[in-house]
TrEMBL record:
Its cofactor is FAD. This is FAD-binding oxidoreductase. InterPro entries: FAD-bd_oxidored_4_C (IPR004113), FAD-bd_PCMH (IPR016166), FAD-bd_PCMH-like_sf (IPR036318), FAD-bd_PCMH_sub2 (IPR016169), FAD-linked_Oxase-like_C (IPR016164), FAD-linked_OxidoTrans_Type4 (IPR051914), Oxid_FAD_bind_N (IPR006094), Vanillyl_alc_oxidase_C-sub2 (IPR016171). Pfam families: FAD-oxidase_C, FAD_binding_4. PROSITE patterns: FAD_PCMH. Residues 43-221 form the FAD-binding PCMH-type domain. It comes from Lactiplantibacillus dongliensis. Transmembrane segments: none annotated. The lineage of its organism: Bacteria, Bacillati, Bacillota, Bacilli, Lactobacillales. It comes from the Bacteria. Keywords: FAD, Flavoprotein, Oxidoreductase.
Length: 466
């Protein structure tokens, strides 16, 4: 890529001034440091220019100018990523899509909701719910943008029943690196009309094009829901029960797993006792249906199944207070672990569901071998585990060395179990080498060929993924 000088960026800024007002254009000292990192803050680099477009056409205008001058461009939503995916590692232009946050239409007849990419997940979900519909994807970070969710193919707790974000995307508007505007998919439920380019951009982490608008699948809002918390004295029994639950013919909405170390972190963080604390491991399940009768039948059957397979008890979270207490704890495990250590980093590995017990046992053995703390929890209904390597008392040099050793070992083990590096957070900048080390060369060549075909000047989100 041609390296652009500071003088060049001054000229580019002056060209952009012709199309954007002062509130939509930042340069030099005007740029807030937050634009130089994501939620983890592990990687930091400021852009030279920040543009805040309000329309797809304005995004296209920026891309045409950037492609003409071969300037690196990075798209950003709300910056909640954990792998440096929205960090402009080569500077250049950062396109901040947060102003493109309008929900455009809810089409009840076609069960779709159309929104701009900068709208937050929580706002889209609330809007749908207020109209009597469910937008099913439920990643943990509710302030993430819809465009960011689509770019990483985010999963979340409800993926076991409703699938990941990909399964809820009907159509996309995408701006290419050359500034062309693509309209992919539609309100249609199926199509066999040429290459499925829509799905190519889902999960592409902003290296192929910039998503500006999405038409999403919605569903009738379930009329009944409840949660079931099941403690176990042994994590292997808990994880060994998960395939049996999924084979039972009953479809939970979520199947979450966590261990005593995560509970202890939360208790220290929240200064309160976790409901029914004291177990070695827990399964936390939710069920949603259109009637209380179906819900009751489902959770009673699953509770019996768990008790038959080693559970010490099964608690129906049948009051709003109890449900809120347990789920608010689960939702803040990450925050609690982060508060327990000077620094940490995360492995977002995914393995076949039948291999989760072996993988968790491996993390325990690795933590003991390397004398480092690795608390974790995960969406075991789909084999996605979040493991946090904690710095604790190690100095920075030792910590970085330990981190590299542990990451290499974890991802190698996941790969050996037919798993993958990331289940939902993406590769971004942080996990590139781990993807390279666990992926066939031919697969990487094919990925790079797609990137080069769509972005021959390699200006879009450089240094990411591949």
């Amino acid at each position: 890529m041609t390296v652009t000088t500071t003088t060049d960026y001054q000229t580019i800024y002056q060209q952009l001034e012709k199309s954007f007002d002062n509130q939509s254009l930042l340069f030099g000292d005007q740029i807030n440091p937050d634009f130089g990192h994501d939620e983890m803050e592990s990687f930091q680099h400021l852009p030279d220019i920040v543009v805040r477009p309000k329309t797809t056409q304005e995004v296209a205008l920026v891309m045409k100018l950037a492609n003409q001058h071969q300037i690196p461009v990075t798209a950003r939503g709300t910056g909640t990523g954990l792998v440096g995916g929205c960090v402009p590692m080569e500077g250049g232009i950062l396109i901040d899509l947060s102003a493109m946050n309008q929900i455009l239409e809810l089409d009840a007849d076609n069960l779709t909701l159309t929104t701009e990419a900068g709208a937050m997940l929580k706002d889209v979900a609330t809007y749908a719910s207020d109209q009597g519909f469910l937008y099913a994807p439920d990643p943990g970070e509710k302030t993430a943008s819809i465009g960011g969710n689509i770019a990483t193919n985010a999963g979340g707790m409800r993926a076991v029943k409703y699938g990941v974000t990909r399964e809820s995307v009907r159509a996309l508007t995408v701006v290419t690196p050359q500034g062309d505007i693509l309209k992919l998919g539609g309100k249609i439920v199926k199509t066999s009309s040429g290459l499925d380019l829509k799905d190519l951009f889902i999960g592409s982490e902003g290296i192929l094009g910039i998503i500006t608008e999405a038409t999403l699948r919605i569903r009738p809002l379930p009329k009944a829901n409840t949660s079931l918390m099941v403690p176990f004295d042994d994590f292997k029994a808990a994880l060994g029960t998960v395939p049996k639950i999924l084979q039972s013919g009953i479809q939970p909405t979520a199947v979450e797993f966590f261990e005593a170390d995560s509970v202890k972190c939360w208790e220290n963080f929240a200064s309160q006792e976790f409901p029914q604390s004291g177990a070695a491991a827990y399964l936390l399940l939710t069920f949603d249906e259109q009637s209380d009768e179906i819900i009751e039948s489902d959770y009673e059957a699953i509770a019996e199944l768990c008790l038959d397979n080693g559970a010490s008890d099964a608690y129906v979270l049948d009051t709003d207070e109890l449900k809120k207490a347990v789920w608010s704890a689960r939702d803040t495990f990450l925050e609690a672990i982060k508060a327990s250590t000077p620094d940490m980093d995360e492995a977002d590995a995914v393995v076949p569901r039948s291999a989760t017990a072996e993988f968790v046992q491996y993390t325990h053995d690795l933590a003991k071998k390397e004398q480092i703390r690795i608390p974790g929890f995960g969406h075991v209904g789909d084999g996605n585990l979040h493991l946090y390597i904690c710095q604790d008392d190690y100095d920075d040099t030792t910590w970085k060395a330990k981190l590299s050793t542990v990451f290499n070992a974890l991802y190698a083990k996941a790969s050996a179990l037919d798993g993958k590096v990331s289940g939902e957070h993406g590769i971004g900048y942080a996990k590139r080498n781990y993807l390279k080390n666990t992926t066939l060369d031919a697969d990487l060549v094919a990925m790079r060929a797609v990137k080069t075909a769509l972005d021959p000047n390699h200006i879009l989100n450089p240094d990411k993924v591949i």
